[in-house]
């Protein structure tokens, strides 16, 4: 039996928000095709729709029209419970703010996504430990976030995003709150892990330096891409 390879396909995507009696267009005619191992940086001015696009791909927002399919599935055809499980298993999120729980230690924070499907196990814990060792935090397992630097917290967030072995990693300004050294380290880590584990990586960033390190990049302005993406 042939293994199903991950594919992200966005077709004719639009998004509008209601503002009083008017509709405010955010995205218009977005088309995007990515396969496993592809890494894309999306740049553009504030308000151009970058984060909205990321949230739709991540199924946190629904499109006004158009389709998103992930490995042949349209997640927006699922009911709320099915969609939540799909998101938990298929998509890993990394945000500008790490969103670590302050009452949990490093290892517990990484394992949090495994609780949603009641799948936490000794195997999952070992995977978490391996990830944390991979990012140089094996000596910080029992530390709470308050004892970590900004770069260390974001490395924990990267591990948390990967713990359920998602096919797609979505990063929204992952280096926005970091100093230059930490930003470089996180950028390298994301690209290395994407290539090693054959993930699809979509990163929204204002940093042209970070975007320049990606094999593919595109600018989003006035709600649409300025050039074709993986056409």
In short:
With 231 residues, this protein is of the alpha/beta class.
Low confidence ranges: none
CATH topology: Rossmann fold
CA-to-CA gap between the ends?
A: 28 Å
Would you count the extended β strands for me? 9
Helical amount: 25-40%
Structural class: alpha/beta
Can you identify the CATH class? Alpha Beta
Order of helices and strands: EEEHEHEHHHEHEHEE
Q: Tell me the number of helical segments per DSSP (H or I, 4 or more residues long).
A: 7
| SS strand fraction | 25-35%
Task: Describe the 3D structure.
By secondary structure, the protein is an alpha/beta fold. The chain has one domain: Rossmann fold. It has 7 helices and 9 strands. The strands form 2 sheets. It has a 6-stranded mixed beta sheet with strand order 5-6-7-3-8-9, sandwiched between helices. Strands 2-1-4 form a 3-stranded antiparallel beta sheet, with helices on one face. The longest helix is centred in the C-terminal third of the chain and has 18 residues, at 180-197. The chain is globular and about 50 Å long. The model has no long low-confidence stretch (mean pLDDT 90).
Give a quick set of tags describing it.
231 residues, alpha/beta, Rossmann fold, 3-stranded antiparallel sheet, 9 strands, 32% helix
